[in-house]
Amino acid sequence: MNFPTKRRAPLAGASSGIGKATALAFAKAGIDVALVSRSQEKLEAVAQGARLCGVKAGVYPLDLAKVSSVREGIAAIAAEENPIDILVNSAGMGYTGTLMDTPLADWQRLIDLNLTSVFQCVQGVLPAMRSRRSGLIVNVASIAGKQTFPNWGACAVSKFGVMALSKTLAEEERPHGIRVTAICPGAVNTPLWDAETVGADFNRSSMLTPEVVAQSILHIALLPETAALEELTLMPSAGTL
């Protein structure tokens, strides 16, 4: 796809899962990507795939869990990749356990990555988007941002927070020409399920694939600036697992 002007998109959490799939989908559509995550090695592998599509793919190692440095880091990326057209926030972690048994340190780590890092990435790109009076922010939430599940309380709190952040941001930034979308996928077959913090045994073959979610994010990105899709729920055809 050829755009009248080149479009650029930083993707937070681009080394695997939904972020990786979205980076490659964007690249195939002709969108330059700035890949952000902790692992430079994994980002380089994604960048190589993106560059095969003929786009620019920058690699920016940044530990999004260290929230005190995220805003500054993303602002520096926005300045280097200027102008920034699209921000995709897909970084996150899973966690299972009852609220009663969740240690404060685990709670804070999850809130930092799933919610506060999104907030800081947004603050990092907003000044540049406001100056151009144009931009799209896509925050990957979850079905757990719309309904609760036993033993997933901490995740639900973080994802409900992403939904509230996205809805408020959409209202505040609309006068500045900035659109905000929250996408809420059901279960997606990503490395999240292999993490030590997640104790769940679901049929992963029935889950959404990262590529399907990425195509939905690309669809949002391809909408004309006169249209805003502020919330999208995408579920496996098998329903909630």
Give the helices and strands as they follow along the chain: EHEHEHEHEHEHE
Main sheet strand line-up: 3-2-1-4-5-6-7
Fraction of residues in H or I helices: 40-55%
Whole-angstrom Rg? 17 Å
Shape: globular
- Average pLDDT figure: 95
Low-confidence parts lasting 5 or more residues at pLDDT below 50?
Answer: none
Secondary structure category = alpha/beta
Annotation, overall tally of beta strands: 7
Count of separate DSSP helical elements = 6
Distance between the termini: 35 Å
State the major sheet.
Answer: 7 strands, parallel
Strand portion, in percent? 15-25%
Give a structural overview.
It is a single chain. By secondary structure, the chain is of the alpha/beta class. It has 6 helices and 7 strands. It has helices spanning 17-28, 40-51, 70-80, 104-132, 153-173, 210-222; strands at 8-12, 32-37, 57-61, 86-89, 135-140, 178-185, 231-234. The longest helix has 29 residues, at 104-132.
